[in-house]
Amino acid sequence: MKSCLVIEDSLDTNALFCKVARRRLYLRVHGATTIEQARMMIQRKKYTVILSDLRMPHGFASDMLIEEKEAIGSTPIILISADDMASHRDRLIENGLNVVQCLEKPIETKRLMSLI
Predict the structure, then answer these.
(1) How far is it, in rounded angstroms, from Cα 47 to Cα 41?
(2) Domain that holds residue 14
């Protein structure tokens, strides 16, 4: 079964993204609300897609994604943020990660689901 990792520190937003992906797309979805949770999940499982916020309470998810690039491989990554994402996107791509889309918050659920 295809799977998705949602990295989002807002509990409500994380739960919403996970719920929508499970119900509408029939994906196995795991949610991480901290960088360390996300790191452990990436190290344990290969995901079909990663949906990641950038700004987390203890740093940027982009730094962790680069550190875990060997485990991530060519998994498509969709970035989500209210901040400017260009520099993060460019840095991830320069480090060999497969960033397929950048979405600015707030995000329409239909748009997000069409990308996943």
Answers:
(1) 9
(2) 3-115
Number of other residues whose CB lies within 10 A of the CB of residue 39: 18
Write the burial class of residue 113 (CB in 10 Å: 0-12 exposed, 13-18 middle, 19+ buried).
middle
Distance CA 30, CA 49 (A): 11
Could you give the CA distance from residue 63 to residue 17 in angstroms, rounded to a whole number? 22
103 compared with 99, residue with greater pLDDT: 99
The answer to whether residues 88 and 54 touch, using CB atoms and an 8 Å cutoff, is yes
Return the biggest CA–CA distance within the chain: 34
The closest of 39, 59, 51 to 80, measured between CA atoms, is: 51
Q: Tell me: the pLDDT tens digits for 30-52?
A: 999 999 999 999 999 999 999 99
Where residue 56 sits, what CATH number does that domain have?
3.40.50.2300
List the structure tokens of 14: 């994380």
